[in-house]
Write a structure and sequence with these properties.
single chain, alpha+beta, six-stranded mixed β-barrel, two-stranded antiparallel ribbon, 19 helices, elongated
Length: about 525
């Protein structure tokens, strides 16, 4: 212990009192030289000859000092500080090279840092739900009809839940938008979702105020009888619309002229699906629900030790039995199971990976350019390196100096790298803020009356797949092409009309005639999903 303490003291003295240590070393060497001179004089040698012989015996003073420095504590740190100081002087000596190299590295590494942060947050980091890898999403498909991604039927979902024991809990939901009014205030268009009882238990999230939807709430609502439905609101809506009122539970709000009793408030940040602000009980009447109403989405939580492949096999077997039992409505229909994380990132994953590869290539080019600059600079310093080698510097010492300068160069690039990554993050945040601002702007009545009226009376309406508004518009455009209503001149050709209707029936659509709805601005009529619950 005493030797350790003394070594620490010596290390601190050598590092932080270097001038005094060097003075003591010079004094000791001078005293040793004088001692040798005196011993030579006592042996009968003249003073001049004694000094010459003492210098020869003692050796070179600087070489001797270097040997002593190598033996004392903290020598390697001292050499590192020397290399850093010399490296900084060399970088300042060539400002053009330094600025170009730092800017090149900062651009390459900054772009990679920003994009990797995005990829990490979207693709690599799990969803903020307990054991999110066990949450699966049901996606309908009908390869015979050319449908690869569709919503599902609620009755099919009920059969999957009841005829298999692989799921710890299941839930179905639909999404839409409706006007919300409270306390006589101005109505606000908010995204809403109708969910079944197990929705929040599947996700593993519970309200911070109030309670979740229970089986007693998940029954068909009878508005004529005076009993409304219940609702759970998001934390953001609670703060913005109701001023974080702690007595919000039990209050009645109005949505589409229907009373809703608020029974809970969700935690901050929870807005699944599709930035939903209010969740209502689905209130499905199984006796009135058609099996071909494929307007629902569904999620489930797998039991422990059950993998996705097992669940897919079991559900596909159930669908095969349903195809035989309900051949008219279930012909060719099956379902694909995805983890919820895979389903949410499926659309953006190829783009993000391509972007990550592109910025990786940019970093590779930046490193190659800086390496070429360093090689050219090393060629220009051949004379300096030769002089240092002639003065006794070893090859290891020279290489260590070059390595220190390269590390300094890569460390100094941190400010421009941070600037580049910060600019990318600010741009992403600005786009998100613009998206929220557009959504808030569209919620105002003066804008909503112009923008949302077309959606409310659209003849090409189909429930959008959960989580992806853009996918809904793509689906609409695809159906417009595949299932176009014949023009008046073409109505004389029954074969064209029959083909269009047969494709519509296979896809689970219902034809809307001119007499049922007025024509759209373009003069088209179209299709509608039967008994769509979105409103």
């Amino acid at each position: 212990m005493p030797s350790f303490v003394s070594r620490i003291r010596a290390l601190c003295r050598n590092l932080f009192r270097r001038t005094a240590v060097e003075q003591d070393l010079s004094a000791e060497l001078k005293q040793a030289f004088e001692f040798l001179v005196e011993s030579k004089i006592r042996d009968g040698t003249s003073i001049s000859e004694a000094r010459r012989l003492a210098a020869i015996e003692l050796g070179g003073v600087e070489q001797l000092k270097e040997q002593i420095r190598e033996a004392r504590a903290g020598y390697h740190l001292e050499v590192l500080f020397q290399d850093v100081r010399f490296g900084l002087r060399m970088l300042l000596k060539t400002p053009g090279f330094t600025v170009v190299a730092i800017a090149t590295l900062g651009l390459g590494i900054g772009a990679n840092t920003a994009i990797f942060s995005l990829v990490n947050g979207v693709l690599l980091r799990p969803l903020p739900f307990p054991e999110s890898q066990r949450i699966v999403y049901f996606e309908g498909k009908n390869p015979a009809a050319g449908i690869t991604d569709s919503n599902i039927s609620y009755l099919d979902f009920t059969d999957w839940s009841q005829q298999t024991d692989l799921f710890a809990s299941t839930a179905a939901y639909w999404v839409g938008t409706a006007d919300l009014g409270a306390d006589g205030g101005e109505p606000e268009a908010v995204p809403r979702a109708g969910v079944t009882t197990g929705f929040f238990s599947v996700l593993g999230v519970q309200p911070v105020l109030g309670r979740a939807i229970v089986p007693e709430d998940d029954k068909p609502a009878s508005f004529n009888g005076g009993r409304g439905t219940v609702a759970i609101i998001s934390h953001g809506l609670w703060k913005r619309r109701f001023g974080s009122d702690p007595a919000i539970v039990g209050r009645v709000v109005v949505m589409k002229s229907r009373p809703l009793t608020v029974i809970g408030v969700m935690p901050p940040g929870f807005e699944y699906p599709e930035q939903t602000q209010i969740w209502v009980n689905s209130a499905v009447n199984l006796s009135d629900e058609p099996r071909d109403n494929r307007a629902w989405s569904a999620i489930a939580r797998l039991k422990p030790n059950v993998d996705l492949k097992q669940a897919q096999t079991r559900v596909s077997a159930i669908n095969a039995r349903l195809d035989k039992e309900f051949h008219e409505t279930n012909k060719g229909w099956d379902v694909s199971l995805w983890t919820l994380h895979q389903r949410l990132v499926r659309e953006v994953k190829p783009s993000l990976l391509a972007l990550l590869g592109a910025v990786g290539l940019v970093l590779l080019i930046a490193c190659a350019n800086v390496a070429n600059l360093l090689l050219a600079r090393s060629a220009a310093r051949q004379k300096e390196i030769a002089i240092r080698a002639a003065m006794g510097a070893s090859r290891t010492r020279v290489l260590r100096q070059m390595l220190t300068e390269s590390i300094l160069l890569s460390a100094i690039r941190a400010p421009p790298q941070h600037l580049v990554s910060r600019c990318v993050d600010v741009d992403v945040a600005r786009r998100r803020a613009a998206t929220r601002a557009d959504r808030d702007r569209l919620s105002r009545p003066d804008v909503r009356s112009r923008r949302l009226s077309a959606d409310r009376h659209s003849l090409w309406h189909r429930p959008r797949p959960s989580g992806f508004e853009a996918q809904r518009h793509q689906c609409i455009e695809r159906r417009r092409t595949q299932l176009r209503r014949p023009s008046p001149d073409e109505r004389a050709q029954p074969s064209v009309d029959r083909r269009s209707r047969s494709r519509a029936d296979a896809a689970g659509w219902r034809w809307i005639d001119d007499k049922e709805l007025s024509p759209s601005p373009g003069g088209e009529t179209g299709l509608q999903c039967p008994q769509c619950p979105h409103g």
